[in-house]
Write a structure and sequence with these properties.
heterodimer, A: MetI-like fold, 0% strand, globular, B: mainly alpha, MetI-like fold, 72% helix
Chain lengths: 275, 298
């Protein structure tokens, strides 16, 4: 079926594909290897590609800042926000997918529109509310805000996935005497597990990388990795080796996670627009 | 909307069950979207400064007047538009071309694809710092070294072209997202259709224009929608690289409001900015939601 293309044509495509990929990935690669250089090597020009790797920068990052504290905060906020968002969204998406009425479409679009509310528009009241309720700079406070910003997207994705579950299977469960709770937990959830997983993945990635609220609602106690890294932007923190080591530490877990889950991610992200 | 038929025997029972299941998520979103909005609106008509308690009371439209007549505000609006528009053009245009490229067979394609989408997973503060220091630093950056190597004089990109440079960094973050989504869409295209067009003598450009592009329209809608949501409120990249400067050269609306509120403690003025940001977002959202509703058949 396929027409044999000329060999040189194929090679040119391959070369171009690799060139673009390397150019896009280069800053991440460079960050990774700079973390293993001494500070002198890190700023030497021309840059050294061959050098003796050292863990000095990593050692100093660990000594200076409590990396595990920030990582713990990030994980706690991301997992907490994602878990609550899923708990709230599963019943909502079930209702919209299987018990739709004439307001369902409007509700979905309204939910999406709340996501378009710019965070800066409500920065002042949220900041003041957090301050007055003592949620400023707490894990709970930031997790609540992250959960709320992701909720519309989580509902949407789950709705899309639930729509793919065949209704007769749910009906069969009901014939066997399952009540609504059992129908959701025993019949629907196992069937929709891949979709729920990709929704959770995306929510985790969005929370992990969230910067606006992280920078504005936390200072030290609940600061996640995004804020930890931002502290390196001050002039006295301008040490390329340590900056790179810290950045690698902040990025690596979610990057590997993203690589492993990219297929599931796409399924979720496209809202069913791409089959 | 082709919804599955309501499954339960009694429609009335189903309706109340649906309502009960939907209520928690809807209620919490309603509170989240209305309470801060009302407060922002209220503060925007007040004199309210966090460090000056003597200043209080009704301000009328003063906060809006000061803001709208402030040249910094117009500049920030323009910068917001440049940032959103520029990044959308680069990421959707580049993403479409690269999606077609990564749809071709070549050696190590899988790895090349994974490398190309990686920046999407990097947190904005890290992206901004890596670009600012490791790549674009006027003395130690890799790009500066490359420029010197070919006989050019390196320039301080963030000082000389602050807005364009921030835009470039943000485009680097969002191009992979466009590739990720559009590539999936290209791959879902029926290969027989492409092959048939080839048989009929359609060249690569004609195939791209008349077969691939129309097929991608839904996926492009999704990319534009999600990116616009995030691009309207870009904050971390500006905060980390230029802090809005030099002057206000790279201050977008988000950063302007932030600096009014948390650097100048002017709650009233910042809230007026917030209200304007919300109005703009709603105008954009109205267009987007309509496009989504039309294209995705929800």
């Amino acid at each position: 079926m396929a027409i044999k293309r000329s060999r040189s044509h194929g090679l040119a495509i391959g070369a171009l594909g690799w060139l673009v990929a390397i150019w896009i990935f280069f800053p991440i690669f460079w960050m990774f290897i700079t973390g293993f250089k001494t500070e002198v090597e890190a700023i030497s020009t021309p840059p050294h590609l061959i050098f003796r790797p050292t863990l000095d920068s990593y050692r100093e990052v660990f000594e200076r800042a409590n990396y595990w504290h920030f990582t713990f905060n990030t994980v706690a906020i991301s997992v907490g926000a994602t878990a609550v968002a899923l708990t709230l969204s599963i019943p909502a998406a079930y209702a919209m997918a299987f018990l739709p009425n004439k307001r369902t479409r409007g509700t979905l679009l309204w939910m999406l529109s709340t996501r378009m509310l710019p965070p800066v528009g409500v920065l002042v009241p949220i900041y003041l509310i957090a301050r007055n309720t003592h949620l400023l700079d707490t894990l709970t406070g930031l997790a609540i805000v992250d959960m709320l910003t992701n909720l519309p997207i989580v509902v949407w994705m789950l709705y899309t996935f639930f729509r793919e579950v065949p209704v007769p299977i749910l009906e069969a469960g009901r014939m066997d005497g399952a009540n609504r709770w059992q129908e959701i937990t025993v019949v629907l959830l196992p069937l929709a597990l891949p979709g729920i997983a990709s929704t959770g993945l995306l929510s985790l990635i969005l929370c992990w990388n969230e910067a606006f609220w992280s920078l504005n609602l936390t200072s030290s106690n609940a600061a996640p990795l995004a804020a930890f890294i931002a502290s390196f932007s001050s002039p006295e923190g301008l040490f390329f080796g340590k900056l790179s080591a810290a950045s690698t530490l902040a990025v690596a877990p979610i990057l590997v996670f993203g690589w492993l889950s990219q297929k599931q991610l796409v399924r979720g992200l496209t809202f069913g627009a791409v089959k | 909307m082709n919804a599955p038929p309501a499954a339960h025997a009694t429609p009335k029972k189903a309706r109340s069950a649906g309502f009960a299941l939907l209520a928690p998520a809807v209620t919490i979103l309603l509170v989240w979207s209305i309470v801060p909005l009302v407060l922002t609106l209220w503060y925007s008509f007040r004199n309210y400064n966090l460090v000056d308690p003597t200043l209080h009371g009704f301000a009328g439209v003063n906060n809006y007047w000061y803001l709208l007549t402030d040249p910094d505000f117009l500049r920030s609006l323009l910068n917001t538009a440049i940032l959103v528009g520029g990044v959308l053009v680069v990421s959707v245009g580049g993403g479409t071309l690269l999606a077609v490229l990564y749809d071709q067979e070549f050696i190590g394609r899988g790895i090349a694809r994974v490398l190309a989408i990686s920046p999407f997973f990097v947190m904005p503060t890290v992206s901004a710092l890596v670009w600012k220091n490791l790549m674009l630093h006027p003395i130690y950056g890799v790009y500066s070294w490359m420029m010197r190597a070919v006989g050019l004089t390196p320039i301080d990109w963030l000082q000389r072209f602050p807005m364009a440079t921030v835009m470039m960094i943000v485009a680097w973050e969002w191009l992979p997202f466009a590739i990720l989504i559009l590539l999936t869409a290209v791959q879902s295209l029926d290969s027989e259709q492409k092959e048939a067009a080839r048989m009929d003598g359609a060249g690569p450009i004609a195939r791209f224009r008349y077969i691939i592009l129309p097929h991608l329209s839904r996926a492009i809608t999704v990319v534009v929608m999600i990116e616009t949501i995030y691009l309207l409120t870009i904050f971390a990249e500006i905060s980390v690289t230029t802090a809005g400067g030099p002057g206000v050269a790279s201050t977008n609306l988000a950063f302007l409001i932030y600096s009014r509120a948390l650097l100048q403690f002017d709650v009233g003025g910042a809230s007026a900015g917030g209200v304007i940001a919300i109005i703009i977002a709603n105008i954009v959202a109205a267009f987007l939601v309509r496009a989504v509703a039309r294209n995705l058949e929800v």
